[in-house]
Amino acid sequence: MNEHTVQSMAKKIVNTFSPEKIIVFGSWARNESNKDSDIDFLVITSYKGSKRDIQAAMRRALKGFGIPKDIIVASKEEIEQKKDLPGYIYGTALREGRVVYERTGQ
User: Fold this and answer.
1) Of 49, 51, 92, 101, which is least surrounded by CB within 10 A?
2) Number of compact structural domains in the chain
């Protein structure tokens, strides 16, 4: 997996779901990934309905890339409320992750 692949995956999410921001975190963001690594996305978006359904739809949209992925969907409000709480990955993703997309002109 390379930077071009990550950007292509992010672009697919952007074009299909119009998120506010996408952060890559985990081994890929730390430059510790290997051929067996997955890619971790935190997708920040306003959403209606089931978060689980949106995550599943995003995984389906990225199916053609053939790369294992974890996608976490959250609103800005959720992240702000829970980023410092134990058991939530938001804080780690914000500290260690890398922004690969951010909507401008908000």
Assistant:
1) 49
2) 1
Strand partners, 39: 69
Burial of 12 (0-12, 13-18, 19+ CB in 10 A): middle
Residues of the chain with pLDDT > 70, as a percent, come to 98
Instruction: Give the domain CATH number at 7.
Output: 3.30.460.10
Q: SS3 for 23-89, per residue?
A: EEECCCCCCCCCCCCCEEEEEECCCCCCHHHHHHHHHHHCHHHCCCEEEEEECHHHHHHHCCCCCCC
Model pLDDT for residues 6-30, shown as the tens digit of each residue: 999 999 999 999 999 999 999 888 8
Please give the residue range of the domain that contains residue 39: 3-102
Q: What pTM value is reported for the model?
A: 0.91
Element (H, E) at 95: helix 90-96
Instruction: Calculate the alpha carbon distances from 61 to 11, 24, 26, 27 in Å.
Output: 11, 17, 21, 22
Distance in angstroms (rounded) separating the CA atoms of residues 24 and 12: 14
